[in-house]
């Protein structure tokens, strides 16, 4: 039947994708989850003095924070609990990535918005430059008398 | 139309640059980073910044307005700061010797873990008020760029002298005592 095969193929793919997405969102965390990784946390947290990530800092406060992370991991804290504890002491700025909600959302949206706006601006400018390019005009008709004389001159030169 | 668009774009660009320049001038004119200490040590008697901060030594907050009429030694420190450990006993002594004369020593802990700061205070037997600013958001108002730094504030809330670095050397101790006398007499 006309149009059935593409429809069936698309709906099949969409169904599979939907099932995968649902499993990813709804599946509970597996019991006995691995403890947080100290190196990963150090890359996600910022030294409040030197303002680089902890894994790039040897400042005394950074060393103390790294030790704190390891102490908390040994005590069984989750990654979120460790981050929350450090935010409670040092503020939101200790997290390398801004929070996803509230005012922190601006830190994600503004750069994205700037990129999109820049892309649109470039597209508009390029398009306007293309429009301004002069279209070639048809050549004016050559005067027949002039053409005849040019042909005569060329013939004389060639002979 | 194209020429007009070009002129508009140029105008916007010039406007943005002008705005950035104005912002730069404004930032430089209003920046007090390090300037409070310079002003104080020149004898300009700048006003000490106000603050309301969480107490580290007990529940609640300390509002700087509650210190009105007292001379105050504001000492900026952190538990991970080595010179801070060296000067801590001397500051405790200053507090005990002068509290009955109207002096308050305030320990201003910043960029630190609360638990570490409390352990530090316990280790050195600090009994003067301690406030906490983990993120260090209020440091800019004082122009503090490192630890330790100490500001002596007179009874009228003016900074009479600032000490960048520890106050443990003999000569610096004498200067601090002299500044405290001036602050108490104001």
Radius of gyration of chain B, in Å, reads: 21 Å
Query: How many strands of chain A?
Result: 0
Biggest interface goes to: A-B, 16 and 16 residues
Q: Would you tell me the overall average pLDDT of chain A?
A: 79
Task: State mean pLDDT of chain B (0 to 100 scale).
Answer: 94
How many helices of chain A? The count is 6
Q: What is the N-to-C succession of helices and strands of chain A?
A: HHHHHH
Question: Beta-strand percentage of chain A?
Answer: under 5%
What is the CATH topology descriptor of the largest domain in chain B?
Glutaredoxin
CATH superfamily of the domain at 34-95 in chain A: Cytochrome C biogenesis protein
Using the CA coordinates, give the radius of gyration of chain A: 34 Å
Instruction: Fill in the CATH topology of the domain at 34-95 in chain A.
Output: Helicase, Ruva Protein, domain 3
Q: Give the oligomeric state.
A: heterodimer
Number of helices of chain B: 6
CATH class membership of the largest domain in chain B: Alpha Beta
Fourth-level CATH superfamily of the largest domain in chain B: Glutaredoxin
Domains of chain B (count) = 2
